[in-house]
Design goal:
seven-stranded mixed sheet; alpha/beta; 6 helices; 191 residues; Rossmann fold
Length: 191
Amino acid sequence: MDLCHVPATREKGWYLALMAPNVKGPNYAWLDPSRLYCHPQGLQDCVADLLQPFQGDAIDMVAGIDAMGFILGAAAAARLQKGFLAIRKAGHLCVQTAAQPYTDYSGREKVMEVRTDAISPGLRVLLVDQWVETGGTMRAAIELVERLGGVVAGVAAICMENSEGGKWIQERYKCSHCVPPRLQPRFDQHQ
């Protein structure tokens, strides 16, 4: 799809066709959404669709998860006129942090950090990431926000797979994603 073309009718998720499949092998994610971010209308519609379920909800801050969640999270924060908090992989923040170990989608053990001075008790945080595959990364972010006294106002991602971890998150938090129900099985099976 042309990066300037905008379809005459734009139903929810039309921009998913902008994503590119993996051509580099099993060490990479099966699909790359970064091409979607290059399309001005696609990015705007994706962010609007992600935020639609939270209209009227109290959200004090948006937090994006390292690294691709920074793009969607910052765009969502700008649209909501809220501040943006980066939840980082360990070792990148030079201030006091809280840390949380987790296992990512590839099975690698990692640690995530967040600055301790950004979340005060009761602060309502919308967590944003590009993708929730196994749920490990998002669950670590949830644990960090809650440990610091914040409230998870919601979780938003382009896709939330129906994995065990994805289901755990969807059962406990208000969630938003862009994949229409008819396409969800294909995304869950990485097709």
